[in-house]
TrEMBL record:
Its cofactor is heme. It comes from the Bacteria. Pfam families: Cytochrom_B_N_2. It is an enzyme of class 7 (translocase). This is Cytochrome bc1 complex cytochrome b subunit. The keyword Amino-acid biosynthesis does not apply. Residues 18-244 form the Cytochrome b/b6 N-terminal region profile domain. It comes from Gulosibacter molinativorax. Its EC number is 7.1.1.8. The chain crosses the membrane at residues 51-70, 116-135, 147-167, 213-237, 258-284, 331-357, 377-398, 418-438. It catalyses: a quinol + 2 Fe(III)-[cytochrome c](out) = a quinone + 2 Fe(II)-[cytochrome c](out) + 2 H(+)(out). The keyword Metal-binding does not apply.
Length: 536
């Protein structure tokens, strides 16, 4: 018996004719068919990258609205808008237009808050996505380039956020720019020239808002779109990673096709994210520039903080002890600024080089499409935790004044503790996390061999008491035991010179694999089933 399928679109309809016309000129059907069959695995952690994309869409939509009304000029004007407390106050055109958007443009305040909240969510989701990639080893071959592109996206996103945060020319953003100006001027020889070039003269100058506006609405968004497109293309080309599980190998991807399953779920998730952003923007106030007033170099509001993702730079400046200046004739070398530059640079550069460093230390040049469980790579997980602690200590220092006032502590005590925790605390976090991963590995090995504790205890004929264990499911066995065994790289003798080489690499490799617990073999699992009479 044959079944005739009737197309939902008539062959002579306008839609069908338009589709044929487009296909004859572009041959898109092949690309759409190929992409539609692409398989994407289903796991909640993969949605972090989607959150970044959808929040970026909210940024573009709200930002486009705001460009129609914002005036990026530092020309002095007198405010005559609807906000009575500032009426008649002198300010820049940028600040006046920001107040007009907030109080005179219908929906303007909502769009401002949507734009700001979406930017915060965008950076947060990028950082969480990067953490997931790092801890699961998704940066390994063949995805090293995509890791680098993701890091560039993170840096551009922070620059985009800072440039937008500085546009209103209010007291808070002006103080932030003043800090940046001081950091730039501390650069030996060329710092003052760079500052004058950026600001159009001595700070605050007359040009910085217009230049930041060009960066914010044209150059940085264009770079974001380009690198985001590259990121997605490489993800499709390299195929998606997946967690260990039954039927999942390095050669396949288990999940749902893009069309219609994944696309439908993605569209629904995008609507949820956009709805969440609009909801939080409607209920929670952010950046009320009317409370701060226009920028004036003389006052500094108490308790002012930068947006959280920029806080680590401000915090690092606060952690440097006083007196770190070296007079050199008529010039003063300010280590109080250059050392934070060094620390922040090492923090970021370390993220860029780590995939290549790990591949060199482990000697692993294979392609990887199955993700690691963080506990199964203790060194990497511990290093990532130490990295996060280092960042968190810098970030917390940006709020050292608020910590001191809210918890009734001396400011010096807060700073001294954070100075200690920045270095020594990161070392402590590394070793505690490493031992915790080893302990979890040992627990997993015991569970794989003996199963879950059931809480049921029986007495054997010879008087021994024994707890009954429930065997693991097939999926649980896969998730616990699917990880590869590695051997530390050994030194080798160069046949030409007869000298032993690779000693440093060998020591690092042994440190990387130190105390790592090997996965159980099928023979060990089978033998354990009959050893104590576990429940089958």
């Amino acid at each position: 018996m044959t079944t005739t399928y009737k197309s939902p679109v008539a062959e002579d309809s306008a839609i069908a004719k338009a589709s044929v016309w487009i296909e004859e000129r572009t041959s898109l059907s092949g690309a759409v068919k190929e992409f539609g069959r692409k398989i994407f695995p289903d796991h909640w952690s993969f949605m972090l990258g989607e959150v970044a994309i959808y929040s970026f869409i909210a940024i573009l939509l709200s930002g486009t609205f705001l460009t129609f009304f914002f005036d990026p000029t530092m020309t002095h004007t007198t405010y005559q808008g609807q906000y009575v407390p500032l009426k008649g106050v002198g300010m820049s055109g940028a600040m006046a237009s920001t107040l007009d958007i907030s109080f005179d443009v219908r929906g303007g305040l909502l769009m401002r808050q949507v734009h700001h909240w979406a930017a915060l969510l965008f950076v947060a989701s990028i950082m969480l996505h990067m953490a997931r990639v790092f801890f699961t080893g998704a940066f390994r071959k063949p995805r090293e380039l995509n890791w680098l592109i993701g890091l560039v996206l993170w840096i551009i996103a922070m620059l985009e956020g800072f440039s937008g945060y500085s546009l209103p020319d209010d007291l808070l953003s002006g103080n932030g720019l003043r800090i940046v100006d001081g950091m730039i001027k501390a650069i030996p020889l060329i710092g003052t020239w760079i500052s004058f070039l950026m600001f159009g003269g001595e700070f605050p100058g007359t040009d910085i808002v217009g230049r930041l506006y060009s960066l914010h609405i044209m150059i940085l968004p264009a770079l974001l779109i380009v690198f985001l497109a590259l990121h997605l293309v490489l993800m499709v080309v390299s195929k998606h990673t997946q967690y260990p599980g039954p039927g999942r190998t390095e050669q396949n991807v288990v999940g749902n096709p893009v069309l219609p399953v994944f696309a439908g779920k993605a569209l629904g998730f995008m609507m949820i994210i956009l709805g969440f952003i609009f909801l939080i923007a409607s209920l929670f106030q952010i950046n009320p520039v009317w409370n701060y007033g226009p920028y004036d170099p003389s006052p500094v509001s108490a308790g002012t903080q930068p947006d959280w993702y920029i806080g680590f730079g401000d915090g690092m400046l606060r952690l440097i002890p006083p007196g770190w200046e070296i007079p050199l004739g008529n010039y003063t070398l300010s280590l109080a600024v250059l050392v934070p530059f060094l620390f922040m640079g090492l923090f970021v550069i370390g993220l860029f080089v780590y995939p290549f460093l790990e591949a060199w230390v482990t000697g692993d040049k294979r392609e990887h499409h199955i993700l690691d469980r963080p506990r199964n790579v203790p060194f990497r997980t511990a290093l990532g935790a130490a990295w996060m602690n280092f960042y968190a200590a810098m970030w917390a220092a940006a709020s050292s004044d608020l910590i001191a006032t809210h918890f009734h502590l001396a400011m010096e005590h807060v700073i001294h503790f954070l100075q200690f925790w920045l270095i020594i605390g990161s070392i402590i976090v590394f070793f505690v996390t490493h031992r915790a991963c080893i302990a979890l590995q040992k627990q997993d090995r015991a569970t794989a061999l003996h199963g879950h504790e059931s809480g049921r205890v029986i007495r054997l004929p010879h008087g021994e008491f024994q707890e009954i264990h429930v065997p693991l499911t097939e999926e649980e066995q896969y998730s616990i035991n699917t990880y590869e065994s590695y051997a530390p790289v050994k030194p080798y003798v160069d046949p030409k010179t007869g000298k032993t080489k690779g000693k440093a690499r060998s020591r690092l490799s042994r440190w990387f694999f130190a105390d790592r617990v090997e996965a159980t073999t099928p023979a060990e699992v089978e033998a354990a089933k009959h050893h104590h009479g576990e429940l089958h």
